[in-house]
Structure formats: C-alpha cells, structure tokens
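Justification of resources, computational component.

The compute hours requested in this renewal are based largely on the per-chain cost of generating structure records like the one below. Each record pairs the submitted sequence with a full structure-token output. That output is archived, and it is also reused by downstream analysis tasks.
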Amino acid sequence: MFMPRMNHGFLRSAPRTLGLAVVAIVLLAGCDASDREPPEEPPAPLPATIPPLSPTVVSLDDHHTVGTVHWPDGNTPDGGQGLPVDGLACVAVSPVDYHVHTHLSIFLNGEALAVPAMVGIVAESPTTECHYPLHTHDATGLLHAHATTQTFFTLGQFFGIWGQPLQRDNIAGLVGLPVAVYVTDGGVVRESTGDLAALQILSHREITIQVGTPVASIPQFTWTGE
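The structure output for this chain reads:
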C-alpha cells in the first residue's frame, strides 16, 4: 500500500509557529485594550463648604461662660499693661458715645474655647483700673468697643491688647493645625480668607475662628444693645 510521505519538518515547526502567533495576538489585544481604556485618574477633591449656621440662637444677657476655659483672664505680659497698644490708650473711664459689640468664637478641633474675661482691663491699683477701647468684661466672647465717635477697630488690635498672636498658623498659641475663619453679619456667613488682623469690630458681627477639624455648625448669639 502506498503511504504518503510525512513532512516531519513542518510538524516540528508548526507548534512553535502557532505559539508565536498566540503571543502576538495577546500582545496586540493588550495594546488595543490599553488604548481603549486609559487608567482612571483619582477624583478631584470636593470644594470646601461653609458649615451651616446653628439653628439655636444663644442669648448672652446672663453673662455665662461660652466654651471651655483655656486661657487665663486678663492680658498676657506681652499685651496691654497700661501703656498705649497699636495707638489705643488705656483710660480710666470708657466713653459711651460709641459702644458696639462683636462676638468672637474660637474652636479647637470642634471644641469651643472661652475667650477670657477682663482682656483690655488693667488694674492700676487695688481701687483703680483703666480700660482699653477694646476689652471683655466676662467670658461670653463679647468684645466691647468704646469710643467718643464711630471708630473702626480691628480684631488685630484686640489680639494686640490681649497679647496673643493672630496669624493663619498661630491663633493665640494654637499652632500646627489648619485655620478657617467665618464672619456672620445679619445671619449671612462668609469665609474670610484675607488678613485676619484687618477684620473690623462691628455691631452684632460674629467671628468664628476654627482651628483643626471643622465645626459641625457656626454658632449664633444674641445680646441686648449694639
């Protein structure tokens, strides 16, 4: 019987040729897939949002302490000791012609810290004292501004009298944490991104300084008078 002669060279080379073809197809498929589906970029961070105003409005007419006591009462040794500070003199009797209040809140990682009482009030003797135009009487956080005529005092002047730093990286000795500042006027909140020292002390203005983690809400206060 006649048997066809087998091409043994072809049989030996076929598996190798087939393997190379498969590898080529896989590589081409991989290139096509990478062209069609580029790697996803990480999502962009969400824009910062202003915390909501607290629905509860707290009256300060009972002069209660607002927040946890953190600083001692009065001025630090670097603050006003009776001599003029930032052009503001300490006088025996505060004028009452112009008398307005701004509320200051300072939060550290979500916890309210009490603004000290008697900032800007200096005992000259056991029976006499002098008052700077910017001062506190209690630990409510109310900053009193006194003058004979309308005067635009600033938060920087208050911190100067207090003797505490006021920078984006150092709020009264609170350092190493992010800082955000919110200003509430007439129930409308805005974030202040400029010079903190230039913020004005205005009637019924509320300034909230957030150090560290964000606050859940921005507090609202009310008081009798300007």
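The longest strand covers residues 98-108. Residues 1-35, 43-47 have pLDDT under 50 and may be disordered.
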